[in-house]
Amino acid sequence: MPKNSKVVKRELDDEVIESVKDLLSNEDSSDDAFKKSELMVDDQEEKDVDVEEGSDVEDERPAWNSKLQYILAQVGFSVGLGNVWRFPYLCQKNGGGAYLVPYLILLLVIGIPLFFLELAVGQRIRRGSIGVWNYISPKLGGIGFASCVVCFFVALYYNVIIGWSLFYFSQSFQHPLPWDQCPLVKNTSHTFVEPECEKSSATTYYWYREALNISSSLSESGGLNWKMTICLLAAWVMVCLAMIKGIQSSGKIMYFSSLFPYVVLLCFLIRGLLLNGSVDGIRHMFTPKLEIMLEPKVWREAATQVFFALGLGFGGVIAFSSYNKRDNNCHFDAVLVSFINFFTSVLATLVVFAVLGFKANIINEKCVIQNSEKILKLLKVGNLSQDMIPHHINFSSITAEDYNLVYDIIQKVKEEEFDSLGLKSCQIEDELNKAVQGTGLAFIAFTEAMTHFPASPFWSVMFFLMLVNLGLGSMFGTIEGIITPIVDTFKVRKEILTVICCLVAFFIGLIFVQRSGNYFVTMFDDYSATLPLLIVVILENIAVTRIYGIEKFMEDLKDMLGFSPSPYYYYMWKYVSPLVLLCLLVASIVQMGLSPPGYNAWIEDTATEEFHSYPTWGMIVCISLMVLAILPVPIVFVVRHCNLIDDSSGSLASVSYKRGRIIKEPVNLEGDNTSLIHGKSPSEVPSPNFGKNIYRKQTGSPTLDTAPNGRYGIGYLMADMPDMPESDL
């Protein structure tokens, strides 16, 4: 019990909870002995008191050192690897610049409103996800537990990606880069290029064979990859050290982990724009294909990207905002962070396609040279006539435009036998249309492009350090979404819980650093979060708008912000967002049902990817991931609805949640409760004389906001105590 108590609560009977300030103001004038008792009461309006939220006596919740630190934390959590390797892919696949239209519309319809909702409930209630949804409705308390489970599943494999980035980062301090050329194999007679590498490419070979040493199927474990095991351990050590003191430690790291990626992206953009072919990539990227924009699939994928880009449902947003002051303008924060996230995605898209345009230009030049040599051979053997070649064409220094001119002429003249000539159309657009995302973009396409950069090791170090920082920023929010609710609910030490959580996650995460680990990463990415998070956010919306009450919530926002939020949010939360989320949930279930569950396996002999269906046990794991993630919701509902656990019986009863109010219930306190004053023992504090009237919570009646004490009235009712002897009063 803290000694510098602002508010004293005393239990005289079953559920007696006193407000010292009210006792002082309502005491009879003749009760001098009570008035002379040594009490320290501060004005509740002057300091941030968290009475109703159920802190012991004074809310000693940590707080952000500055508004900038908090914004950087939210930006670091929401801006992650998906902004770099998922958004550009979706933009290219779904109509280029036209894709930005549905994305922006859905950002306004579900993104900002739901992000604002999570920020507001976290700041209003000042608890993690478990405490927040218990506060709103005890029967829906499972929402918070479900968020914790999803966060844990995501943290398991997300940190593996950080481990991969750490491995590439460690290998970037050499020139030439180890993935620059295919390795040579020597035997007793001669030296030759590694066949697997020759059939694919140097960067593809390095990713699948040198880095992952991947097996041919999910069922073929192949044992641990020790290089990646060490990198995974390093990643978890970094996360643990950064999170061990909560926001007091991770908040300071945010200044670097959140800002450094922007420095790297700007450097890459400037460098990329100076490369040959970069403008072609950017032009291709933002050329709108308006007809694609009308397809339902485009809107579904845009909604999914908006949903996951902001980290909705994970609990990290709520956890971070719970450390804010109550009067913080969370509406401004929601709009600011959402648009920072959007513009970061656009910036990353510019960088990616500037670099991919450069890469496509190099590949196109190689294509032109190789096919020009074929044409020269065909001219020498007489299969082609010199007359069909324009006089200005010089094959020793032919350009892409000249080659395409010759190609079109030959195709028209030799129409019947053209296919047998073996000539290829070298169009830069064909190369740019080869959409890549995820690890294929970061560890294959982008690394290949960087090998052609001057000073390529420097750019490789910068790129993978950026990926590490993007990943860590998201991991901090994800781990905070696990740690904060558990600490708030079960009152365990944050340092011990953080270490235990990271250790458990590391040992479970060993399944991802087997030789077949990449397939498990794909499985968890596809099935552990998508559907459970959609269900979680739908229930969050229902809990606030239907159970807590949208009108009451709008009043809370007015009280917090100092102004009434726009009616736009009222209609979005109550009608539009739930409808859009339900449509997205149905579309995701249909998409999951239509898509055969499986993964792309790397086949060593052919050096190609091949689609494999999940085995029976793999399907069981996929279903189990979804069920386990959402299972806490019905379990908690049944337990609370049927009163299967007595909340007043013991360890979990330190906080009771009743109709939107949290009341602290001291457990196993014996002796004179005046020991709560100044933290003294019963023997040290004289027993004051009480008046006949005290504030007593009326048993069996609803908790109403009837008392004027404090900014947020707890709502006590007056009750007489006729059974107490007059001498004791």
TrEMBL record:
Coiled coil: none annotated. One of its GO terms (biological process) is L-leucine transport. Residues 27-57, 674-707 are annotated as: Disordered. Pfam families: SNF (PF00209). Its main location: membrane. One of its GO terms (cellular component) is plasma membrane. Residues 40-57 have a biased composition (Acidic residues). It is a multi-pass membrane protein. It catalyses: L-proline(in) + Na(+)(in) = L-proline(out) + Na(+)(out); L-methionine(in) + Na(+)(in) = L-methionine(out) + Na(+)(out); L-threonine(in) + Na(+)(in) = L-threonine(out) + Na(+)(out); L-valine(in) + Na(+)(in) = L-valine(out) + Na(+)(out). Keywords: Glycoprotein, Ion transport, Membrane, Metal-binding, Neurotransmitter transport, Phosphoprotein, Sodium, Sodium transport, Symport, Transmembrane, Transmembrane helix, Transport. The chain crosses the membrane at residues 70-88, 100-121, 142-169, 226-247, 259-282, 302-323, 335-356, 458-483, 495-513, 533-550, 571-594, 614-639. The keyword Cytoplasm does not apply. InterPro entries: B(0)AT2, Na/ntran_symport, Neutral_aa_SLC6, SNS_sf. Residues 696-706 have a biased composition (Polar residues). PANTHER family: SODIUM-DEPENDENT NEUTRAL AMINO ACID TRANSPORTER B(0)AT2, SODIUM/CHLORIDE DEPENDENT TRANSPORTER. Belongs to the sodium:neurotransmitter symporter (SNF) (TC 2.A.22) family. SLC6A15 subfamily. This is Transporter.
